[in-house]
């Protein structure tokens, strides 16, 4: 199928990836003993390379969020995945039947048409209510996206601070110190990733810790409430085919309470993202107080500031989740909308006659479509097709952290004298090593020429020299 493919996120990848839990023994360098190589996931894929399916199954049209990496070539008006059309099948069928009944009564029994002035009066009220509903829902959706964008920024800043500013001890007599410090930094950066994943599950009312993308990140955190709880009571039960069908069509009686796992649990489930932040704070405090690994006061303040921002993000997303549009507004807007749709055929039958049926269905599609969109994006953290793709956000954070830790801290300091470093490009193609042979005055004069030389002169000189080096003296 050519529509957007369904997401295939890291959680599914983790479920299917076989892991070699057995360590292999290899001979050491001197041949006197055998060292163990740590176990490795033989099917590992970096988060930035997670694959997605190229086709959609039937259920994928109702499941979300959408995979943002996929691109559909279909025109927007022809797309199904991401549309609210499946949830409008039953309401539009009812509206069509209602309009048919009205026109039949009007034609064969008694004239029941009313003046169209009512259409104008009620139309204004309905438009005002829908505008308020949709704008409020999109504001919540946008707030959720802003919080995740802020989390991505803060995660990068805190991870970079830990990786580059936490000192690794170098003691020839105790080489284990350096290894311990390195593993400590990696573990702390993993907690940043764990916070994002735990926040995703918390916002979806998934209180367990044995999810494939979360358990390896938090299973070593002793004392967390969710880990101590009975995990068997915190798993979703597979719905029946009839209930799943009704949920896909938006039938309210078939929809489950999203908080049912939390209500069913008998244990205190705690707040896992907050507990992850507590462990991360303990690491920073230990690095400052005991190990003296963050000697700069500015970096110490930045570390605690980033953790505070992450706590603010936790509270902000919980605010968006737990304070929907007041129920009175939602009920009133829904009643006003349906009242307008039900009265609409009475106002159209006199002038449109049998055309009243398709006209009412089209009008109901427009009105109910806006109402359903507002209801769907009101909670941007769920599993609806148009909700925020939080799996993609978590994968993006994990990929950025992996790239950061792939380069040793000291390697970041060596770029200035690299053979490919051309500090005065495009004025000069000379490397930094070649510029070291010049005086400071020559370098400053070249910098001045770089700022004042006209681009036309430079292009002319390059053509003359055939893109040779332009040495400024």
From TrEMBL:
InterPro entries given for it?
YneE/VCCN1/2-like
Pfam families to which the protein is assigned, alphabetical: Bestrophin_2
Membrane-related topology note: Multi-pass membrane protein
Span-the-membrane segments of this chain are 88-110, 116-136, 327-348, 354-373
| Protein location | Cell membrane
Look up keyword Magnesium and say if it applies: no
- Keyword Acyltransferase recorded: no
Protein name per the record: Bestrophin homolog
